[in-house]
């Protein structure tokens, strides 16, 4: 199985474009990636990459084995799925990736309820705030809302994921005009790493795209909200996270004439695993739990139950005292 693992690493390097980027994506260090690639090259008897300080390229051998390695990894995964299918219908291990905030507030409960209903199943749940190729990184299901596509991976849409553009009253009191998305070029903007710095809005005259220069960037949705509450600038955040703070006047919706297109929470599954009974059962369970009403829309008012849960979690994560809208705590 070490060879298969090395093949997965090779595929991850090809996708990421460098050893260091692949290491970050696989939550390891570049030296581990390098050792696995070296072992694979020793087995093949030829280099797979042209290594230079400028960029990483596949050798002729690397280009030849790339599609074959993808097929081999898929076949091995499929073989294990077939073997498991002859046992208990729900026996086996299900490895799932889910974004941290989404899991802590909503999907963690849904997945643990599945585990309780199917005790013979084993769940390996990994919280990760980036898009992953489940085929390359060994996941049966990758849950997320980042628009993407991968070869030999199919997406099952689960529910819409609305977003809002917000800022604190304290920031807006000292900031410049903000009536058009292009005004963001003169504002402090707070970005979410997985989405990037290109913000797209829909207005009456059509789409407006703005390439912001982030004042603050983070890969955690809760911290992004904390940054907005701390008067650091304008942020695009999940609508359900913003609701309780908007209701209390701690955040304000801005650019309301320009909507942010909804993302969709989806479950990405390798094609080779799509017919596995355990995978199918989990995808069906997820779909039934979030349709026709997404979990954050139950009691969906500005101060609804889902919003209060998000606010309580954010408050519990904060080390500082509660803040008044737009003002720092007394004594600062």
UniProtKB/TrEMBL annotation:
- Keyword Transcription regulation assigned to the entry: answer is yes
Q: Which CDD domains match?
A: PBP2_CrgA_like
Which Pfam families does the entry mention?
HTH_1, LysR_substrate
Parts of the chain that traverse the membrane: none
Does the keyword field hold Transcription? yes
GO MF term (any one): DNA-binding transcription factor activity
- Top-rank taxon, per record: Bacteria
Q: Where is the HTH lysR-type domain?
A: 1-59
Q: Name one GO biological process term.
A: DNA-templated transcription
Cite the entry's keywords alphabetically.
Answer: DNA-binding, Transcription, Transcription regulation
Instruction: Give the signal peptide, or none.
Output: none
Q: Which InterPro entries match?
A: LysR-type_TF_proteobact-type, LysR_HTH_N, LysR_subst-bd, WH-like_DNA-bd_sf, WH_DNA-bd_sf
Question: Which PANTHER family does UniProt cross-reference here?
Answer: HTH-TYPE TRANSCRIPTIONAL REGULATOR, TRANSCRIPTIONAL REGULATORY PROTEIN
Q: Which family, according to the similarity comment?
A: Belongs to the LysR transcriptional regulatory family.
What is this protein's record name? HTH-type transcriptional regulator DmlR
**From which source organism is this entry?**
Pseudooceanicola marinus
């Amino acid at each position: 199985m070490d060879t298969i693992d090395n093949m997965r690493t090779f595929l991850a390097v090809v996708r990421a474009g460098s050893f260091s980027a692949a290491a970050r994506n696989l939550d390891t260090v570049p030296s581990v990636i390098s050792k696995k690639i070296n072992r694979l090259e020793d087995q093949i008897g030829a280099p797979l990459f042209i290594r230079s300080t400028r960029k990483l390229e596949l050798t002729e051998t690397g280009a030849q084995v790339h599609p074959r390695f993808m097929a081999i990894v898929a076949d091995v995964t499929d073989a294990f799925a077939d073997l498991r299918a002859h046992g208990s219908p729900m026996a086996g291990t299900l490895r799932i990736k889910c974004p941290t905030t989404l899991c802590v507030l909503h999907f963690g409960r849904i997945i643990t309820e599945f585990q309780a209903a199917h005790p013979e199943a084993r769940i390996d749940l990994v919280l990760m705030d980036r898009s992953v190729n489940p085929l390359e990184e060994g996941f049966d299901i990758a849950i997320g809302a980042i628009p993407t596509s991968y070869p030999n991976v199919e997406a099952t849409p689960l529910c819409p994921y609305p977003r809002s553009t917000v800022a604190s009253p304290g920031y807006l009191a000292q900031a410049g005009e903000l009536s058009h998305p292009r005004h963001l070029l003169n504002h402090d903007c707070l970005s979410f790493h997985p989405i990037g710095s290109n913000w797209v809005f829909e207005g009456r005259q059509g789409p407006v795209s703005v390439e912001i220069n982030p004042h603050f960037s983070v890969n955690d949705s809760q911290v992004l909200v904390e940054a907005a509450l701390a008067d650091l600038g304008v942020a695009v955040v999940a609508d359900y996270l913003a609701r309780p703070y908007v209701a209390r006047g701690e955040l304000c919706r801005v650019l309301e004439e320009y909507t942010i297109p909804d993302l969709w929470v989806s479950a990405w599954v390798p094609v080779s695993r799509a017919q596995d009974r355990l995978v199918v059962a989990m995808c069906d369970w997820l779909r039934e739990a979030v349709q026709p009403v997404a979990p954050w829309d139950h009691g969906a008012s500005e101060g609804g139950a889902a919003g209060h849960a998000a606010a309580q979690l954010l408050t519990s994560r904060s080390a500082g005292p509660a803040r008044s809208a737009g003002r720092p705590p007394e004594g600062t």
